[in-house]
Amino acid sequence: MQEKNGAVLVIGAGVGGIRSSLDLAESGYKVYLTDRSPGIGGTLIQLETWFPDNQCELCKLLPVFSRDECSQVCLRRDLMHPNIELIPNSRVSKLSGKEGDFKATLNIKSRWVIEERCTACDLCAQVCPVEISDEFNRGLQKRKAIYVRNPQAIPNVYIIDQEHCTKCGKCVEICPTKAVVLNKPDETKELSVGAVILSAGATELPANQMGQYGYGYYANVITNIQLERLLADAGPTHGELLRPSDNKPPRKIAILQCVGSRDMDRNYCSEVCCMYALKESMMLRERYPDAQVTIFYMDIRAFGKDYYRYHLQAKEKGVNFARSRVSRIRENPKTKNLFLLARDEAGKSISAEYDMAVLSVAQCPSPNLTELSKVMNISTNKWGFIDTPGFYITHTSRPGVFVSGSASGPSDISETVIKSSAAACEAASILAKSQKQAAEKKTVHKHQTGKEEDVKIAVYICQCGKEISSIVNIEKTKEFAKKLPNVTSVEDVGFLCLPETLDNVKQAVAKSGANRVIFAACAPYRYQRLFSDALAEAGIDASQWQLVNFQEQLAWVHKDNPTLATRKAQNLLAMAAERLRTQGPLEVPTAEMTHNCLVVGGGISGMTSALSLADQGLDVTLVEKAGELGGHSRNLYYDLIPDNPQALVKGIIDKVKSNPKIKVLLNSELSGISGHIGHFKSQIKSGDKVEQIQHGAVIIATGASDYQPTEYSYGKDARVITQHELQKRLAEGKLGKPATVVMIQCVGSRNNTHPYCNRTCCSEAITNARKIKELSPETQIFILNRDIMAYGFKEQYYTQAREAGVLFHRYEPESEPKVTAGEKALTVEWPDPALPGSLEIDADLLVLSTGYIANEGNATIAKMLAIPLTEDGFFKEIDTKFRPVDVILDGVFITGLANAPRSLAEKIIEAQAAAQRAANVLSREQLTSGRIISEVDKRRCSCCGLCVEACPFDARSLNEEEHYAVVEETLCQGCGMCVSVCPNDAAKLRGQKEKQVFSMVEIGLSA
Q: pTM (2 decimals)?
């Protein structure tokens, strides 16, 4: 059999593509990350914060281990991994072959700028005479024909807009490195890969298509992305919300939901808009307390983990909510204020004046997705998104080609991240035998160490054209540097980053015998790996060279004071030289590890995780406390996805039982666990027998419990049942043909006791209602709800249910339905907000949509592992958006109902995501940490334990016998918390010791 290719092509470098790429790269696969745009980040980098914590935290995507080999700076500034090759400005024009052996043809559109020579000095843009609308800021300001996509673009290299370039040649003349080459031809590149992940994202509906709102005609009608750019500190108004018409701050703002979605043309929910609106409205209220913000909506779909609390938080902050769909907007030509025309639920006309209107526009397929789907030879759905048939929503119609993120349908950040890890898992599963085949092979260079007295330091000062040399007196700085202890040579160069210059430097260092190097240049983001690789070839260890930022941190901030800038340059060089003089080589700590996984819970989530790991060649122990596998999914008979869930679950159970890599322990439970990532020891109790196993990672898939209602006479009246019980009756043919069925949503959830949405209840109600209508069209069905959570493509089934005659009526939480049990019927009464007075229905059957509550056993496991739970008792992830299946303890992952309520398809992709996160660890030969880590001076340690309590990574413990603290090096992240709390000065950071730090400070002050 032909060996499969161990490389993966990822198309689309937004958050989804980045997540897939990093997961695969961390597992040892070569990744080609492509994007049609000149930079990476997609729509995400146009936003500065996101719900639920209104912070950025994009850096949470970064790898935890192998930190010195890849980016450890803001992901808005740099993306670097030895196994990832970034190919921006490229298009896939052809894909031939089959799973495991694809040939992809890339057309790489020329920037007309040579990447390796561009220093992003901005001189070209300053002289460019052409100004056009800036698409990154959504037309709120202008940009030049030669530009970078945004101030923090990756790669930070200029590109020429060929459509608008006049070829006047001014940029060519002024470029100091001859990087601008007009008419530089495009390139074609052939790639051999084993799998493809399509992560092309989505775009916003052009708001001018919704002519009734006046976008493009009325200056103060903007989109939600434009609002994001106005509120961004790096945006066109530096974070100030100003009306485009007069640059005055608006004080009455309307946010309109579902603009271009949930209609006949796009009968789907864009899924993210409600939470964007809540976040933006709260930001407005925080920054402008006097502002009035009103959200016009049909349903607030706050269905994710803690999203309902976020909704309540917005109300507490004074955000107004109007359940109404605005029909049109008109402008006052004198004031440029806006009149919104709408009707409320009761049909009463609403006419209100606002200073600004914000349109929450629909997510639509990327404009290039149709072309790309034809190239990939994969199917799309009726709206143009990639079609994902069945419960595996990362699959496409072509084996070996997977899809993630919004390319397959509207997705928020956390769902995109989960889908992307799941897609990476699918790719890794089919290429497992070719792992590390195409990954970058490390070249081991012999490093010169040298004792402190033998240190020889070479200093290279970059002029960066005139960016540095016009401010800093280079000659004075060189003369100063030559007098520093252990400095053997000082040179200045025009542009250190140019290939020919760096090659000369590399050769000079190798010949000179220098064993330390200082580069005085610019920010490290783009050049860290470039410099490090060059010096490694010259025999300089990564811990024995230093980059001093003479540009951003010196020349740019002291433009008006060259004398101060020069003196500061000398101080910085003196401190860097002192640090390197006292710095020996820092080795990267490594540790052996156990390459198997413990999965706790044998439901659909646990089984899927186990199979995903086994498919990657890893051994798994699957522990289930019940006597059979399957969990809640065994009782699922119908789903909005038309495939048969029973057949799916049975098939997975059979695969698990027959897989030689999976050891299944039924009637068993986790009774104890100790250790850390790579080296866990667990006790599994099976009856009276206790078995101890060793494993490198843990996946918690313990599920949840059905909420047992006490409301509405449940358990007392046989006519009152739950949705789960209804579905079982339908499957067994025992329902009969009731004349009237009433369903009540949010029973036991979205209340004070359980203030969260159960995510699945509305889908279950719609599924069961449609099934009843299919079997008994004459049955009247009423679904009493507060908001229908038919997010994404579920909206179409909501529409179909209404078309089938299912009636949806609302109730307010303070006016819940009342049920009176009569001999012949159950009388259900409630005040409907859309009608005067109350409605009263006699029902033959009352169905309660109840959802899930956290398992009581979660607290026991959380205590064993010292990991937190949420307020609701579910396991708490480390970051909702960017690490949704990771917990605070490295090597432990959560999935399924143990994390939060999920649908069957969502459980599967989350289980695959958790499996891939575990595989990232287990596929390593060794665990590696960073060079800068903590250590202990045993003579000074009093074994007080303060450092153990302070360590956020559980990297410290106490050796009670020998009476000192111990550091688990591979867990240490070098944060320094232990150093700050140690009362005896026993905790140290390698590379940051007192002698070193104090001597640097002393030198800096005296220089």
A: 0.94
